[in-house]
Protein 1
Amino acid sequence: MKYSYFPGCSLKGLGRAYEESLLPVFKHLGVELEELEDWNCCGATAYMAVDEGKACVLAARNLALAQQSGHVQMLAPCAACYLVLNKAQHYLHDSPAMRTTVDHALGTIGLKFSGALSVRHPLDVLLNDVGLEAVRQKVRRPLSGLKVAPYYGCQMVRPYATFDDQYNPTTMDRLIEALGASVVRYPLKTKCCGGSLTGTVPEAGVRMVYILLNEARKRGAHCLATVCPLCQFNLDAYHAQVTSQYGDVMMPTVYFTQLMGLAFGLEQQGLGLGRAAVPFKWRPGTVPSPQPEVQSGEPQLKAQSS
Amino acid sequence: MMEIERTIKYDADRVKGFGKEVMGVSGCEQLESCIQCGTCSGVCPLSIYMDYTPRQVMALTRGGFKREVLRSHTIWLCASCYACTVECPREIRITDIIYELKQRAIHEGIYPKRFPIPVLAREFSEMVRRNGRITEMLLVMRLFLKTNPWAAMGNWRMGLDLLKTGRLSLATEKIKGRRDLARMLDAVDAEKGAQA
């Protein structure tokens, strides 16, 4: 199994813990990842707001480079990159005008993209190429006793649900169970975390983060598991703001790959576990500390009530 | 004297042809068939903060109320979660229509001043053009500088957390093919210019 690996900007920046856990875990499973040479930013949601044509061209350069290096499969762990690289392919397929624009732009630098590259999410690869049985066989230290709230966010399942259910995705649930942990019922698993609104309009964004954290706490989870660097950043780094506005919600947020690394016994490789503002201190073989008392009814809002 | 303001729109507020123009864009055609059911506003996690709900933005756009939609906070509050798009019974790609409206608002320079979201979009695209990649912390700093320098001070605890956990890197990420990238983006502009 060999894939072109598209890390994206976040996995080299604020979301580096995702890469630091993903790479050793995939290596341990025998999946070969080759980082795309000189990849550029996928454009994310921000570029689509400025210029759709250019956004597609940005994505297409990466797709073309991967194809040029002989790959037919690309792994895009960041949910935003995953969506943008797939969305660009949909646009190229559906709109002849967009195809012309992109072909022309790629042509100016001698690149070509034929369209036969599939961009995959790590969960897709883990469940459908590697298989849960192979994952189970690598588990050295089962995550027994750990209760996880699986949080998928938006972009893995919307607007395109390619390998999982759009309304109730379960790939991460099944993976977490294969690691020996249990999942709590988490109905907000695909609710938006607020994206960049945490920074731009905090009165809206921070509240969205609070709702997700508090629901995980109410459900008795010990941690949230994410598939997206922006979700992880929002749920983790805004903890101080959430606390000052709504009260303390001590809920660590980890990448699913970090849980895999712990279960595989790869902790000595770091796995980016020291990167979180709300540290995830639990280790396999110990009893998770009980969650703080949950108040019944609606939590009190210190700031304002709407 | 009591100050009053008209809360509904008149025919004279319309910009004739605007709705047709938007519905003529690839991916936005389905707007024509909107039944105003309000599912989009119901599932939108941000509609409670919007000046016009997504349902209203759809109606205003189709009706040609260009100034109202392009100046609305709604289009900038959309976080692209696509909940409306997947729930719409008429299969209208609402998120993509909002992207189209954002592009038009940026292009015409009519968005709420000092509103950080369009500034973020612009700073983001300029950084990608310059370096080929985003250095997140530099982007955030530019955003604060351009909108509300004092707000950055309020986030000192987060800065400290990021520093302690080794995530606060300010070294600019750059690709080798920066010239290629600029040439490609220029080609898109040239094509648009030729069409206009």
Protein 2
Amino acid sequence: MTRFLLRRLLLALPALLGLLVLTFVLLRVVPSDPSTALAGENATPEQIAAIRKAYGFDQPLWRQFVVYVGQVLTGDFGNSIFTEQPVLGDITRRLPATVELVLAALLFATGVGIPLGVLAAVYYNSSFDHAVRIVTVGGLAIAPFWFAIILQLVFAMDLDWLPLRGRIPVGMPPPPTVTGLYLIDSLVAGRFDLLTTAARHMLLPAFTLSLGSLASITRFTRAGMLETLQKDFVAYEKAAGYPERRVIWVYVLRNSLVATTTQIGLLFGALIAGAVAVETIYDWPGIGSYAVQAILTSDYKAILAVTLVVGVIYAAVNIAVDIVHALLDPRVAEQL
Amino acid sequence: MPSRRSLLINSTALAATMVSRISWAHGQTRTHELNWSEGPPNILDPHVIFDGPMVFYMLNTYDTLYRYEGNPPKIVPWLASSYTASPDGLTWTFKLRQGAKFQDGSEIVAEDVVYSFQRLVALNRGPAAVFKPILDSVSVGEDRYTVQFKLKVPYAPFLSTVPIVAIVNPRVIAPNVKNDDWGAAWLSANSAGSGPYRLDPATYRPMEAIDFHRFKEHFAGWGHNANPVELVRNRYILETTTRVSALMRGDIDAIDHYLPVDQLDRIGRTAGLRVTNDETMRVFVITMHNGRAPFDNVHYRRALSYAFNYKGFIDGILKKGAVRNPGPIPQNLWGSPADLKGYEFNLEKAKAELEKARAAGAPVDREIEIHTQNQQAQTTQAAQVFQSDLRKIGIKLKVVPNLWPPLAAATTKPETSPDMWLHWVSAYFVDPENWIGQMYDSAFHGTWKGSAWYKNAEVDGLLREARRELDAERRKGLYEKASRIVVDEAADIWIYNTIQMRGLSKRIQGFAFSPIGGGSEFRLLSLT
């Protein structure tokens, strides 16, 4: 297992470097000179030239890249071109909000998606199965930004049941930071009022974000279950008189979850990246809305850092998924 | 151990409790706390950037020697009580008000003003662009309340540009200077001012949140406002629909003024809210690249000027939320000729001008491009209206979505400047120099304002003379003459002067609009 982990980690490094090269080149080949943004709105060509020189933007692109990678390796993502604040500080402050939102969305999608997929497989081709198919196809097809606005208009504006935006109301102090996840930090602080408030603020964004994942997990579980249900061991267990509920929810489900687990892992990374639209609409102060601002202002250092952080999370989750595979299916572990 | 059924019932009950708390306290009603939502400056150092958001920030946290008030804006003494200019326009002397204090309690004296201007020029960022070419020296005058500026050349708009420069507290900055940076790294997230509100740096999250607390010892006093706001929370909400919805729910009390018409309708229909309506000095322009064929042909530019449906755009799309502006200077500012007609929408005249251009050998059949700003829906709408009408006279227009930073970078060189692009020219300072002076004097080529790459020796001469001339009437005449020439030559397509429509809670009292700052001046406001 240790060798396997090391091999996976070593494979992740060139992938991350490739990601960095690609993002750096793509950001810098477009005609957007960061020195213009740095110099300010009314700057003269002379002022812009002075900035270009001072920040090294007049150096060849490869040299700028080497310098940047050298900084990143020491944990320094540099300062934002736009706000001149350390990018690492911005990301550290905002990442917990995104992680909390993504975890909530994934928890919901998994908790609902797996049972739905199991039931759709058990009641294959029934009205229930068709209904689940329609809902899941809809879930995949609906644009999150549109759905988010509709949910806001209905549940926050018309019914006035849930908050519109943000993690907590304007002016309310957050719980003392332990993990940065408000739900957990509220619990740690014993602030159940804050826990309820934070949970209410999370309902709409987490539900919106979960929709695509819910559909995907449901479909994967259903397909896995249908395949496993055809296996001989299922017929044997049924013939041996095992309770059907136990056969379905324990033996068949466990043998069907390999593909679903892979999907959940991939979804975690995808949700971090996909949080961009949801965070923007719900004014959720995570790295998704940070990325939007960075793109709108051509803040290439912030964009690079967000890309790299998402890449690292993606790689880490993939490795974690492989480990879970091994735990679910001992044959996988033997091959390592 | 609870049964599954009881677990289900309990969790359903918890969910129902969370959802059914309709009496959610989202509409805050405290009369000393104001929740504002306006785009903050990206950096808090007033000597590093100067743009609309910085004016909003400066108005509340910093003071200047003179400042603008009212609409039309008048320049009034602020930290200075008076000024004199030498007859040759080279020496400007300002007398400071005595007893004015920074937020740390220290008195504002001439050395602080000298430090502020020296810091501005040394940092050499955007706001220094005006002063760097003209400022020879700034020094303490005959006493510690007198400041003297020596200019290299006479510069008539000097007084108008003084409100650009925030007076900062050197005693607060000095301990935070690193690597000779004049404290720029520190001041980008802190404040060193004397304004009526002080920044709470602990609450500052860039482009997200800033809290301001009232500075009770502000030199102007609080006699004008019996019930001032003690705490202002500025929370910037990026998404327009969410921002407007937050205002409608009462989560916030006021939002910015860059709102599309449909959102203004939503606000206008909501009880407890109002939409302000004030003419600004913010001109919407389609800049044309006069240095590139076929735009180097005056008939081609005139053809395009006749092909934009000004009335249709203003009345139809903006629902009359703007005033037609026929030239580069806002029509409510001196220097813009009162009888300036400009161009009207007339496709027959456009065709005639196009034929003249064709006859002169201009490549009128080439597909041309117009760049819009993605964040500003109006630029796309205007481009699409234009595209539709240009098609009728046989001109193919490609609409290219873009963003401000790449556009600002592209416009610094003639070869990368787009054929046409859409933008506004706001009131950075209130003088025709801010518009026509910096847009059509060829000395400003390489700045985004000068991206028309227009070059006319007579106009250069008129604008430079107006810059030197101290007699107000003569300056007015010079700008009017220059305006007529650039309009006749259709240097650009000037569409409208903006009407600011801002969404406000009716709780807010004392709102007073000025084109500089757009009314975001907290010291005037109170809440019911």
